[in-house]
Amino acid sequence: MHNEAEKTNKKEEVIIRQASETDLEKIYKIETQSFKKPWSKNLFLHSIKSGEIFVAEIDGEVRGYICFSRVLDEVHIENIAVEPKWRGKGIGFQLLKFVIENNKNCDFFLEVRPSNQPAITLYRKFGFLEIGRRKKYYGDEDAIIMIRRKKEE
């Protein structure tokens, strides 16, 4: 019985890597499971070709992704999602941490639905603050604009 408890508490290793075109179908599946108005496959394909999307892989399976763009010292987090059955296991945290750690001395911006409390909680853990709203950004809902200012070393 003791061994069984150890087995279920063992954390799966998350590997974060740049997405490739072979990941497109899985990324798109997670996207459509996660959002009312999903991105198109073409938009993801563009992000993959631009090198602006990373995936979180567990046991060889893509479980989440993060899309972002960087211009000079500003990073815009454009999209982040985790497969529904894998949420709450720290995958989104690891994806966001990876992008922040690999884009030092940058300001980070994002938009999030006010109804997406798990995402807002995650962003606040990284020091994101609400700076405004975009009216009807999602059509049916405003967007909260959040920013994380660069850390001065």
Explain this structure:
There is one protein chain. 32% of the residues lie in helices and 32% in strands. It has 153 residues and is an alpha+beta fold. Strands 1-2-3-4-5-7-6 form a seven-stranded mixed sheet. α2 (24-34) packs across α3 (41-50). 26% of the residues are buried.
Low-confidence runs (pLDDT<50, min 5 residues)?
1-9
Order of helices and strands: HEHHEEEHEHEE
Judging from the principal axes of the Cα atoms, what is the shape? globular
Overall average residue pLDDT: 91
Which band does the percent of strand residues land in?
25-35%
Number-wise, the strands total 7
Main sheet makeup: 7 strands, mixed
Count every helix, treating DSSP H or I runs of 4 or more residues as helices.
Answer: 5
Distance between the termini: 49 Å
For the CA atoms, what is the radius of gyration? Answer: 16 Å
Can you give the helix content as a percent range? 25-40%
Main sheet: strand order: 1-2-3-4-5-7-6
Sheet/helix structural class: alpha+beta
Topology at a glance:
Elements: H1 2-9, E1 14-18, H2 24-34, H3 41-50, E2 53-58, E3 61-71, E4 74-82, H4 91-101, E5 107-112, H5 117-125, E6 129-134, E7 143-148
Parallel strand pairs: 4-5
Antiparallel strand pairs: 1-2, 2-3, 3-4, 5-7, 6-7
Helix pairs in contact: 2-3
Q: Quick gist of this model?
A:
With 153 residues, the protein is an alpha+beta fold. The chain has five helices and seven strands; from the N terminus they run H-E-H-H-E-E-E-H-E-H-E-E.
